[in-house]
Every structure is written in structure tokens, then in C-alpha cells.
């Protein structure tokens, strides 16, 4: 194992010598067995391995952009006790002195083998990952999404308030209805998305230039780059190909007249709105435009038999759009604080001296 460190823990049957380090290709199947046991018991571990190999060819994952970190038994490295994954991120940062881009990571799939839980392995794992982030990785910041935010606060991550909207009741007879009173939209092709992402990045830079920032503040956003957005698209495409023998062909929709678009990706049991882009300088978008785009997403979810569509961090205008379509097509909308996937941020060295505001805290920024 690369970057390996050894330790002794109190195991279920007495002292246990373990090793922390970067996972090897030979450990990949064992890592995936722990992952599926924790997050997707019905998903075969062999398919999880295929999924990781597929994503490893994506630009975001190249050159060790994605790494597995695991704790294994010292004299039996094939037995994985705990693991997580780090995935490269590019952040845009605005402080009182400048606007600049920084390298960082997202931490995901933190899991412990069922037989070795409550032994302090997660604490050991995250402690060493944080040391790697501060040291060899030289990461300006890291993000993770969790249902146990208090645990990560003890290791230097700050919990950021987050909300979610769930659109449900996509029944078998769902139909998006008459759209004559709504702006016209169309589905995006995959070939169009990278150029739209670059426009989005440019808009974000311009908006950060206009921010007024005090010395005790810092603003941060995960760049909505083509690599970031399409990584999630491919993540979901593989799953749907395995599930139904077909990969999705549409990942978003656009209202060209309003210069507004959305992306979505396919999850295990829902369709997620990855990103909602509205033109800069004109508020946060027309509810009617956003409603029409959301109807495109609902049609995609219905086509793939997903029971719900999820939206992270919806703007007031987007919430108004969801309320509009709930009356139009009789779906149910609930907006509430996120009970899981709580956004948590850690600056290098656990620096908490500045008040942080996260922009574009949407699903595209997650793992």
C-alpha cells in the first residue's frame, strides 16, 4: 500500500494490527464489497468494480484524480476494514484580497465493514486522510456530504446548512400536460454540455468579481466545469446501463429564449437535478422558465421509472417553479433541511478563522 501507516486497535477478539494507506488494484474488489454492503446491498460488488474502472477513464479521475484509502489487516491486506474515496475538485475562491482557483478534493463512500464497526476505524481513517490532504495532496479545501456532520466537525470540517426539495408522486399515468402557457424548451445533446459548462464557469468568475468581501470572509464554489458535470452523468449512465441495459441519452434541457438551462443525472432510485443555470445579472430566473425545464426533468424521470426528482439548494424562484408544476401536473413537492448529505467543508490545516459562504451548493459538487 502507498503512503502506508500501521496501528494497533482493540478488535472484536483482542488487539488487531492494521495498516492505513492508498488502496491497491488487488484490494479493489474487497473495497467494493464494503461499499455495496454499506450503500447498495442489491448491487453486486463485481459491478461496483466495473463502475470504478469505467469512471477511472474519465478526465476527472485521470492522474490519480480518484484514489481509494483503506484500513486493512496488516497480515491480510485483502481484508478491508474501512475505506473512503477522494475525488479531485477545482474550487473558485474569493477572499478580501483576490479571486483565485485552488485544487482540492471531495471525500465520498466512507464505509466500515459491518463486523468491525464502533472500533474507532472511521476516526483513524479520516485522521490520516486529513493528514494526506494537508501534506502530500496540498489541498486548499475538501468537501464531503454526510448524515453525521457532528463526527466530521471533530476532525476540522464545518457543517454548512443545506436544504433539499423532493418532487414525488410520479405515477404511472404521469403526463407533463399542456405547456402552451410556459416558455418553450428542448433537450440538450451531450455534445452541447461542455461549452455550456465553460460559459457557466465564466459567469461564476464574473459574479465573484462583484462580491464585496470583508477581511474575515471567504467565498467558495466548486467550479461547474465540463469534467465535474459530466463525471456525474457518466456515474449515472453506467448504473442505468447495468439496471436496464440502456444508457440515458439526455442529461439536461435548455430554454434558449431565456438563456437558462439545467442538467440532471440518474441515481440509484431517483433523478437528481445536477445544476440550474440562470443568466447573470437578472435575478435567479423566471419561475415559468424554470417550471418548463423541470417538466423536462420530470418526463425523463418518468421514462426511467424513477419515483422522485431531487433538487439540492433550490433558489426561491426554483421553489416557486416547483409549486407551479405541482398544481399543473399534481406532483407533490417537499422542501426541508437535508437530513443526510449535509455539506461539510474543511480548509487546509482545519483553518476556521474565516466565515465561509458556499455558492452553487448543488448536486454536481457531490461525489
Automatic annotation (TrEMBL):
Listed CDD domains: NAT_SF (cd04301)
Database matches in InterPro entries: Acyl_CoA_acyltransferase, GNAT_dom, GNAT_LYC1-like, LAT
One function term, GO molecular function aspect: acyltransferase activity, transferring groups other than amino-acyl groups
PANTHER family: LYSINE ACETYLTRANSFERASE (PTHR34815), N-ACETYLTRANSFERASE DOMAIN-CONTAINING PROTEIN (PTHR34815:SF4)
Name of this protein: N-acetyltransferase domain-containing protein
UniProt cross-references to PROSITE patterns, sorted A to Z: GNAT (PS51186)
Domain named N-acetyltransferase: residues: 18-181
One Pfam family matching this protein: GNAT_LYC1-like
Domain of life where this protein originates: Eukaryota
Amino acid at each position: 500500500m502507498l503512503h502506508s501507516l500501521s496501528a494497533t486497535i482493540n478488535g472484536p477478539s483482542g488487539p488487531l494490527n492494521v495498516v492505513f494507506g492508498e488502496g491497491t488494484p488487488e484490494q479493489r474488489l474487497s473495497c467494493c464489497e464494503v461499499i455495496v454492503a454499506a450503500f447498495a446491498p442489491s448491487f453486486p460488488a463485481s459491478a461496483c468494480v466495473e463502475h470504478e474502472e469505467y469512471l477511472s477513464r474519465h478526465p476527472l479521475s485521470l492522474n490519480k484524480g480518484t484514489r481509494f484509502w483503506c484500513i486493512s489487516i496488516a497480515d491480510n491486506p485483502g481484508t478491508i476494514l474501512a475505506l473512503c474515496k477522494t475525488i479531485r475538485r477545482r474550487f473558485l475562491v474569493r477572499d478580501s484580497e483576490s479571486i483565485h482557483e485552488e485544487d482540492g478534493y471531495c471525500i465520498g463512500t466512507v464505509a466500515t465493514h459491518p463486523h468491525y464497526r464502533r472500533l474507532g476505524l472511521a476516526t483513524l481513517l479520516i485522521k490520516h486522510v486529513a493528514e494526506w490532504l494537508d501534506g502530500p495532496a496540498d489541498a486548499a479545501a475538501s468537501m464531503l456530504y454526510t448524515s453525521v456532520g457532528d463526527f466530521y466537525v471533530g476532525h476540522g470540517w464545518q457543517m454548512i446548512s443545506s436544504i433539499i426539495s423532493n418532487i414525488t408522486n410520479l405515477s404511472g399515468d404521469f403526463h407533463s400536460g399542456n405547456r402552451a402557457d410556459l416558455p418553450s424548451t428542448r433537450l440538450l445533446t451531450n455534445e452541447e454540455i461542455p461549452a455550456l459548462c465553460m460559459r457557466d464557469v465564466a459567469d461564476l468568475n464574473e459574479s465573484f468579481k462583484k462580491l464585496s468581501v470583508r477581511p474575515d470572509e471567504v467565498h467558495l464554489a466548486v467550479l461547474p466545469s465540463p469534467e465535474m458535470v459530466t463525471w456525474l452523468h457518466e456515474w449515472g449512465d453506467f448504473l442505468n446501463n447495468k439496471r436496464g441495459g440502456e444508457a440515458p441519452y439526455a442529461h439536461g434541457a435548455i430554454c434558449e429564449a431565456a438563456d437558462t438551462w439545467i442538467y440532471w443525472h440518474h441515481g440509484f432510485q431517483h433523478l437528481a437535478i445536477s445544476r440550474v443555470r440562470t443568466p447573470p445579472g437578472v435575478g435567479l430566473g423566471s419561475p415559468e422558465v424554470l417550471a418548463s425545464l423541470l417538466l423536462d426533468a420530470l418526463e425523463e424521470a418518468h421514462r426511467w421509472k424513477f419515483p422522485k426528482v431531487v433538487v439540492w439548494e433550490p433558489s426561491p424562484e426554483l421553489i416557486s417553479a416547483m409549486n407551479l408544476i405541482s398544481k399543473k401536473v399534481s406532483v407533490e413537492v417537499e422542501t426541508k433541511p437535508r437530513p443526510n448529505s449535509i455539506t461539510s467543508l474543511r480548509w487546509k490545516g482545519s483553518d476556521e478563522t474565516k466565515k465561509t459562504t458556499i455558492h452553487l451548493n448543488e448536486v454536481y459538487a457531490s461525489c
